[in-house]
Amino acid sequence: MNPARALAEALGAKVTWDQATNTVMIESELYNQFMNEKVVVQLIRAANNHYWHIANGGSGVGRVENVNVEGQRYRWMGSDLETKEKYTAYLKEVTTPEQSAAYWQKEVANGSIREINGKLAQPDADGGSLRDWNASKATLIKDGTTQKTYTLIVPLGDSGDHEVHEVTVKLVDGTGWRIDETLDFIKS
Fold it and tell me: Do 112 and 159 form a contact (C-beta atoms < 8 A)?
C-alpha cells in the first residue's frame, strides 16, 4: 500500500486513482476546500468516468441479463449500481445532492432507468460522444467561497474542433466540491 494512501485513508479520506492522469485523488472535506482550474478539470474527469460507467451499466459480479419492459429490451445494472441507493450515492460522488436527485428523477421519467422489484435496469443500448473531457481546459469566470463557475473548452475527438461549456461547482458541507449540474451535461 502506498504510504500517502494509508495516511489519507487513516484520516478518513477517500483515495482513488485517476488513470487518465496517473495521479492519486484524495477526497475529504479537509482536502476539498480548495478549488481551482486544475481541480475542476479533475472533478469533470471524474464526472465523465461516472457518466460512462453508468451508461455502460456499471460493473460487478454476475453476467449481464436482459429483461423486457413494455416491449423494450432492458439490461440489469451491475451490482455496484443495482439499487436506487447505490446509484444515487454514486452520483453524489461528483454532483450535489440536489443535482443527483434531479438526475435520478429525469432518468426514471424518461425511461432510462427502471426500478423493478428494488433492482435497476436500463435500456440495452450504449451511445458515445466525441467530447474529450479529459483534455478540457478550464477558466474561472465567477468566484465565490461556496460556489464557482468555470468555462470549459472541450476538444471534439481529433477534429481540432471544440465546444465551450459553462459548469458551476458548489461546496457541499461535509463532502467537498461537487458539480452543480445534472450528470447528463457530459453528453448533452
Answer: no
Please list the helix, strand and coil fractions of the chain in percent, rounded to the nearest 5, in that order: 30, 30, 35
pLDDT digits (tens, 9 = 90+) for 65-104: 788 888 888 889 999 999 999 999 999 999 999 999 999 9
Show the DSSP H helices in 30-122 as ranges.
37-55, 84-92, 97-109
* DSSP assignment letter at 70: T
Give the C-alpha separation, 96 to 118, whole Å: 24
Cell readout for 84 is 436506487
Dump pLDDT digits (tens) for 88-146: 999 999 999 999 999 999 999 999 999 999 999 998 876 677 889 989 999 999 999 99
Helices (H), the chain: 3-10, 37-55, 84-92, 97-109
Q: Going from the N-terminus, what domains does the chain have, and what CATH number goes with each?
A: 1-33 (no CATH), 34-186 (3.10.450.420)
